[in-house]
Amino acid sequence: MFKAVSAYTKSLAAVARWRLGYTFALVVISSLTEGLGLALLLPTLQLAGVDIGSGSAAGRYAAVVREGLGAVGLRPTLALMLALFVWIICVRAIVTRAQGMAITVLFETFAQHLRQRLFEAVSGANWLFICKSRSSDFVHALTNEVDRASGAAHQGLYSVSGAAVAALYIVASFILFPASTLLMLALCAVLGLLLRAKTRAVYSVGSEVSDVTNSVYAAAIEHFQSIKTAKMYGAQRRTCDIFSGLTREMTATGLRLTNEQLSADAWFEIGSAVMMGGMLLVAIKWMAISPAEVLILLVLFARVLPRIRSMQTSYRGFVALLPGFATVTRIEEQCRAAAEPDRDVGQPMEFRSALRFENVSFTYPPNATPVLRGIDLTISVGRTVAIVGPSGAGKSTIADLVMGLMPAGSGRVTVDGTPLNPARALSWREGIGYVGQDTYLFHDTVRANLLWARPDANENQLRAALRKAAADEFVARLPDGIDTIVGDRGATLSQGERQRLALARAILRQPRLLVLDESTNSLDSENEARILGAIEQMQGGITTVLIAHRLSTIRWADLIYVIEDGQVVESGDWTTLSARLDGRFRSWCVAQGLAA
Ligand code: ADP
Questions:
Q1: Which CATH number fits domain 354-591: 3.40.50.150, 3.40.50.300, 3.90.550.10, 3.30.470.20?
Q2: Which of 99, 139, 428, 486 could form a disulfide linkage to 349, CB 3.0–4.6 angstroms apart?
Q3: What is the DSSP letter of 553?
């Protein structure tokens, strides 16, 4: 746990820098004003007529304070002392307000920093890592866990401020009663040691809180993403039951955490009461101190012990929230370890001649079986290349390698003869338009969804892209035309309409390479023909990779690669392939009613 506390402190110090010093300064000033109030207590009591014994330590202390006031030209009267009290309380109120604000700014800034850093780390992680990860883990870390991590700063600083105030009281107490104070400190240390196990338990239950809230997030997000399927399968009741089971677990863990914290507080309370009683007994019976000193000792205890208690309570609050920080750093470190390299600072990627796969094999880690084996293919500039094959043959994997989303396992992918390494992949992807099987639309207007791909596009370019993607007519029919909100992930549109908007978005980018991965499979034949016609018209001007299992969509491709079980089994144009009587391609054409 010490490591977790030190990692947290380092991270907070790195973000807060001068703010941390400023906040600490306010904490110290606030403690000093409290200490000053205490310093005035004894002489004020004396001026009010309470006999504190002039020869006693308390009497000597009161005399020192009176002399100090005299040295700065103040005559210690009851009225002056009371006026000083009021003044100190006013200063304290102002400083405490500033301190509260400074702590809040500190933890809000820390939260913002953690959130931003994590978001960037997740966005910069490579595609294979993203594929293996659960998106709800990221959402949970970015929201709940960042809140807990920054809340820990709040608790931690209150704990430190409590420690500073307690230290002042302890110093004052030590000046007056060195032996009793040392004894009290020793007993406090014993109490602290006894409660260490409780603090560790708080940390461990705090980690369980992280796990169980993560499960609740995952259940909620996955359910909302699949709500239609859940309804269709009548699985609502089951998912609700699973969810309520998780929320019950979450409540139970929260209660256990509070229970651990409260029981630690209670043990401290009991321990300190026993300690105080014992000490008073020793002081009165064996150390023979005066009744006035007993009174002062009581006042000191009554002020010091609650400070130490609140310091401990805040510390345990800090420890309970610390696992939130651990989750955020763990996920951030995993993402950074899987980061895509920074963009190559050399020449931007050009595409003048061809993209080539040279004996490329690929295996998804940690699997042992390759999904692509010894692939050789060429995508020449200006050509339309189709990749066809049965489901699971490896077509989308080829598309991902073409787009530089993952590096080839063995062999090379080259662009104009230069290997497409991860450092060059970022600038390579800037020139690619991609429409996949799962089109993603934001909960925003049609216009905003299009502009996302190219923020500087003008109205004419937007309309032209819609026209080319055969989306102009249905968009015109929407209630607010191009300014209609399409719903969460385009929920108010049909699958075919979503695909056409996604295609318009890709076309709007004016890409050098257009990759269409089964992107017309939800269209009716009329709209499919329109889109294919549009793409055909672009033929020559744009390089297109068409991935399909419906052969009707690739009839006019310049070159067709037939993929089966991760290998190229045939290649050529439509006429050549469909004429090969014993070929795989021809047998699919026959099966799909495209050849006799
Ligand atoms: P196709 O596009 O031809 O249907 P894919 O390229 O999507 O085929 O998949 C090829 C094989 O790779 C399949 O067996 C699939 O299960 C596997 N696969 C795809 N993506 C992943 C992944 N992220 N991790 C592990 N295996 C994967």
A1: 3.40.50.300
A2: 428
A3: G
The model's confidence at residue 538, banded by pLDDT at 50, 70 and 90, is low
pLDDT of residue 539: 64
pLDDT of residue 345: 60
In contact, 152 and 8? CB cutoff 8 Å: yes
- Residue-wise pLDDT tens digits, 504-514: 998 888 888 99
Q: What are the b/e assignments for 173-196, b being 16+ CB within 10 Å?
A: beebbeebbebbeebbeebeeebe
Which atom of ligand 1 has the smallest separation from the CA of 391?
A: 4
Q: How many CB atoms lie within 10 A of CB 408?
A: 20
Query: pLDDT per residue over 138-166, tens digit each?
Result: 999 999 999 999 999 888 888 887 787 78
CA 205 vs CA 244, 245, 307, 316, 321: distances in Å: 20, 18, 25, 11, 10
452 C-alpha to ligand 1 centroid (Å) = 28
Which pLDDT tens digit goes with each residue over 255-270?
Answer: 999 999 999 888 888 8
d(CA 459, CA 221): 36
Task: Find the 409 Cα to ligand 1 centroid distance in Å.
Answer: 15
Picking from 315, 322, 323, the residue whose alpha carbon sits closest to that of residue 196 is 315
* Minimal-distance CA residue to ligand 1 atom 1: 392
Atom number, ligand 1, closest to the C-alpha of residue 132:
23
Minimum CA distance residue for ligand 1 atom 22: 364
Q: Report pLDDT digits (tens) over 21-72.
A: 888 788 778 777 776 776 777 778 777 777 766 666 667 777 777 788 888 8
Give the whole-angstrom CA distance, residue 292 versus residue 62: 13
How far is the centre of ligand 1, averaged over its atoms, from the C-alpha of 391 (Å)? 9
Indicate if ligand 1 lies below 6 Å from the C-beta of 31.
no
Token pair, residue 431, equals 């020139």
Distances (CA, A) of 423 to 340, 349, 353: 7, 11, 21
- The 3-state DSSP composition of the chain as helix, strand, coil percent (nearest 5) reads 65, 10, 25
> What's the CA-to-centroid distance between 533 and ligand 1, angstroms?
30
Per-domain residue ranges of the chain: 2-337, 354-591
Q: Is the C-alpha dihedral spanning 245, 246, 252, 255 positive or negative?
A: negative
Predicted pLDDT at 348 = 66
129 CB under 6 A from ligand 1? no
Instruction: Say if ligand 1 is within 6 A of residue 81 CB.
Output: no
Note the pTM of the prediction, 2 decimals: 0.78
